[in-house]
Write a structure and sequence with these properties.
The chain has about 100 residues and is of the alpha+beta class. It has one domain (about 1-85): Uracil-DNA Glycosylase, subunit E. About 30% of the residues lie in helices and about 15% in strands. The chain has a two-stranded parallel ribbon with strand order 1-2. A hairpin with a 2-residue loop joins strand 3 (about 90) and strand 4.
Length: about 100
């Protein structure tokens, strides 16, 4: 799993199609007992490299009743998007 995560974090496969360039955002550990799967990082997440680091993350943490420290504890919670990088905007929102 560690090798796979390293490969994902180093991925540049779609770089020519990404408006802000590649910056895969994924947090995981073999010890994590909970996996949160999202759609794709937004611009703020792309800038900071921290998943769910926006108002939607505040809402999710509230729903889960988790503070930021526990939510971002990779040993407990894995956070993986279906699209690892910010995809840009389409005419009707994110692509």
């Amino acid at each position: 799993m560690i090798r796979l995560l390293d490969e994902v974090r180093a991925c540049t496969l779609c770089s020519e199609h990404l408006p802000l360039g590649p910056r895969p955002v994924v947090r995981a550990s073999p010890t994590a007992r909970l996996l949160i799967i999202g759609q794709a990082p937004g611009t703020r997440v792309h800038e900071t490299g921290v998943p769910w680091n926006d108002p939607s993350g505040d809402r999710l943490r509230d729903w889960l009743q988790l503070d930021r420290d526990r939510f971002y504890d990779d040993s407990q919670i894995a956070i993986v998007p279906m699209g690892f990088c910010y995809p840009g905007k389409g005419r009707s929102g994110d692509l």
